[in-house]
Amino acid sequence: MFESSVYRNRREALKKKVGNGIILILGNNEAPANYPDNTYKFRQDSSFLYFFGLSHPGFAGVMDVESGEDILFGDDVTMDDIIWMGAQPSVKELALRVGVEKSFPFLRLKDVISKAVSQRRKIHFLPPYRFDNMMLLEDLTGIRASIVRQHASLDLIKAVISLRSTKEPCEIEEIDKACNIGYEMHVAAMRLCKPGVSEQYIAGVLDGIAASYGSMTSFATILTQNGQTLHNHDHSNLLQAGRLMLTDAGAERLSNYCSDHTRTIPVGGKFTDRQRDVYRIVLACHDKALELARPGVTYKSVHLAVCETLVSGLKDLGIMKGNTVDAVSSGAHALFMPHGLGHMMGLDVHDMEDLGQCYVGYDEETRPSEQFGLASLRMGRRLQEGFVVTDEPGCYFIPALIDKWKAEKLHAEFLNFDVIETYKDFGGIRLEDDILITKDGSRFTGEKRIPITIEDVEETMNN
Question: In terms of Cα–Cα distance, which of 414, 402, 428, 431 is closest to 341?
Fold first, then answer.
């Protein structure tokens, strides 16, 4: 939790941007795992954290734009709660910690919203993603839960995104600390990556490192020899010499700010010549993004430049052919990189995408594409100082996709399918860092960069 002035300033800025009505920000509730009292680890809604700062279940916040008043709604603990949980601060005490002067029991929320509805005032709320909050909004507003997302306030969505996109110094500090944990996680994976070790064991160690800092992973850890599957959460294999292990993992601090890194390393500590060739191409793509990312540049243009670097490298290996720019324009490269270059980072590992990815990563100037591969670019709009985005190019050889394109003779003028066939057992490589857009360019987040060059990776694995 930051100083109370941080949250007061954020709420004041939000009210000015929205301009009228009542702003309702719902927190999350506990989610039962297999019976009511056995719950999943609690995770607060990120927008509630941003404006009200409290990581406690059962809260909601209201901002009255016209009166300027902020109200926190929640219930004080009962004696039964105290017996099981220990003494807890009152709702009033919690409200004052985040600069809110007025607080009420949660049931009073309906009175406030009902009064505003009767006065025909605009009720601004964000699109809910949990069913209990969908039901709550139906009770508060009368809008059926099945369609309540359609009635979320676009004005509020855009206002929240405009504030949360540019990270304050206190946020950047937290992201740097989350990346420090990510460094320890990935270095541990490098030192454990040996033939005969189970993927599950290493993934468990990484999850434990994140938890040991009083936090958790920022998403379900991806750790696999089958890196050609982009989000492979299966950890059932034993590591085999000569294979590549792809690890996509991040930490979430107690403040809920996240990290997200990917490294691909050779099982046993030594890249083969073929692995080195493809790895160097992906690393060149990664460095090209870092070179180009700066304020005023669209991330879509950076993505396309990276794809041209990928094609050039694959042409050198005889995997692709033809004009590089034309190959990227046609989407032929997406056989090997069917995803986008990156996404926003912050309180969420895919920051704010619950608000609508088309609003987070795009705007009126830069629109999403429907082309295969480019359609998966989650961040395309112009970069601004203070944005934190991922830089995560990859190169994958997906047998089913290769077979499909070959049978359809798709992009045959750019693809040497006979050569590609010899790579169907390769797997995939992805390299990812989180970068902060600075005044003049960009920088890595975190105090130490996770080893990424071939030499540094092999040295770390064998030291």
Answer: 431
d(CA 290, CA 306): 10
DSSP state of 234: -
Nearest to 125 by CA among 272, 227, 27, 31: 27
pLDDT at 458: 98
State pLDDT tens for residues 110-148. 999 999 999 999 999 999 999 999 999 999 999 999 999
Residues of the chain with pLDDT under 70: none
Q: Which domains does the chain have, with CATH numbers?
A: 4-165 (3.40.350.10), 169-462 (3.90.230.10)
Of 23, 28, 26, 53, whose CA–CA distance to 42 is shortest?
A: 28
Helix (H) or strand (E) holding 201: helix 199-212
How many Cβ atoms from other residues are within 10 Å of residue 107's Cβ?
A: 9
Residues paired with residue 216 on neighbouring β-strands, in sequence order? 252
pTM: 0.96
First to last CA, the chain: 39
Q: Note the pLDDT of residue 215.
A: 79
